[in-house]
Write a structure and sequence with these properties.
The protein is built from two helices and 22 strands. The protein has 271 residues and is of the alpha+beta class. It has two domains: 117 residues, no CATH class; 145 residues, no CATH class. The strands form nine sheets. A four-stranded antiparallel β-sheet has the order 9-10-19-18, with no helix packed on it. Strand 11 and strand 12 form a beta hairpin. It starts with a helix and ends with a helix.
């Protein structure tokens, strides 16, 4: 019965984390480029109550008896399915159609990756630099910040194939600015480390970042200007997951209550 108390407690802890994950998904239902996360569980060690043996009549008992000791969280995995494109007019709003990520430079000197295409052309001294809304520089296909002349009228910038930036000449004809927004892919995006604010970091599980501009084996992603990629969270699914987590939490709490009552009855046998 003490074992069942502990098992029920592990179930309550696991379901509390599960509910935390559901709440996080629902809270980010309107976050640009957010990817829904799913909870994965694993059972704890099993305790052997009886090994393979024989009966008193020497009959074989090939199957032993093992009892589980509960559950714990195994992983919280991001699901990198495509979010719906949402029309958001603006020269620096981009939705990624494909498996690519923007690369941005962090304040700590590390490179981060994101699907959030809500970008801005910010003043950078006498020039203009393409950044995230947090002021982090967005990298070009060359892995360098995208810096434009300070006289550039950002509302006239358009994006062509391969993320190349164009600006009209005196005759109104778009001319290449010889710089392109870089996009990177990963062998296993689910292995990326989460850094918050829709940012991810490369890890051993994700594999090294692969520049689409330098790798012909990758299917190139497309940038859609004037759109943002919405969250891929499905509210109906998350509400169902919330109900399941709540019921599982109630059942595990009932296990603890029942075990406590059985212990009380056992303690009263001497009276």
């Amino acid at each position: 019965m003490v074992r069942s108390l502990w098992t029920g407690a592990t179930g309550m802890i696991a379901q509390q984390i599960n509910l935390d994950n559901v709440a996080n998904n629902l809270s980010n239902v309107n976050t640009t480029g957010y990817k829904a996360e799913v909870m994965e569980f694993k059972s704890l060690l099993y305790q052997t109550l009886q090994t393979k043996s024989t009966t008193a009549n020497m009959a074989n008992k090939p199957i032993g008896a093992e009892v589980g000791l509960g559950v714990r969280n195994s992983a919280i995995t991001s699901i990198f399915t495509q979010g719906s494109p949402l029309e958001t007019p603006g020269p620096s709003n981009f939705a990624i159609d494909g498996e690519g990520f923007f690369a941005v430079g962090g304040t700590d000197g590390n490179t981060y990756y994101t699907r959030n295409g809500n970008l801005v052309f910010a003043i950078y001294g006498d020039d203009i630099m393409l950044t995230t809304t947090d002021g982090l520089p967005v990298y070009s296909t060359e892995g360098e910040p995208i810096i434009l002349d300070g006289d550039t009228v950002v509302s006239k910038i358009t994006v062509g194939d391969g993320g190349v930036l164009y600006y009209p000449d005196e005759d109104g004809m778009p001319q290449s600015l010889d710089v392109a927004i870089g996009l990177w892919q990963f062998n296993n995006p689910a292995g990326l480390s989460k850094a918050g604010t829709s940012l991810f970091m490369e890890s051993d599980a994700s594999g090294a970042a692969m520049n689409e501009a330098d790798n012909d084996d990758l299917k190139p992603s497309k940038l859609i200007q004037g759109y943002l990629e919405g969250s891929n969270v499905q509210v109906a699914d998350e509400m169902v997951n919330m109900i399941i987590a709540q019921r599982a939490y109630e059942m595990n709490s009932k296990v603890i209550t029942t075990s406590d009552e059985m212990l009380q009855q056992a303690n009263q046998l001497k009276r």
